[in-house]
Amino acid sequence: MAKLTARIAAIQFGFAIGVVALLARAVQLQIVEGDKWAKEAETKRTERRVLEARRGALYDRNGVPLAITQEFYHVGIAPNELNDPGAAFRLIVRTLGVPAAALDRDFRARKRWIYLHGPYNATQVQPLRAIDGVHLDGAFQRFYPSRELARPIIGGLSADRAAGGAGLELALDSILTGRAGEAVLLKDRAGRRYASPARLVRDPVPGNDVVLTIDAELQEIAERGLADALEEMKAQGGDVVFLDPKTGELLALASRQVHPGAVPRASTFTDPFEPGSTAKLFTAAALLRNGLVDSTDAVFGEGGVWHMPVRRSGSRTREIRDVHVHKGNLTLAEAIRTSSNIAMAKFSLRLTPGQQYDVLRDFGFGTPTGAEFPSESRGMLARPDRWQPMYTRASVAMGYEIGVTPVQLASAYGAIANDGVLMAPTLIREVRDPSGTVLFRRTPEPVRRVLSRETAGRLREYLRGAVGEGGTGGEAQLVNYTVLGKTGTARRFEDGRYVTGKYTSTFAAIFPAEDPQLVVIVKIDNPKGSYYGGSTAAPVTRTMLQQSLASRRVAINRGRLAPPEVLLAPAPASAAGGSASRKPVVVVGWPYQKADASPGPVPVPSVGGRSVREAALALHRRGFRMSLRGLGRVVRTAPAAGEPAPPGATVTVWAE
Question: Nearest 5°: phi and psi at 426?
Answer without folding.
Answer: -145, 150
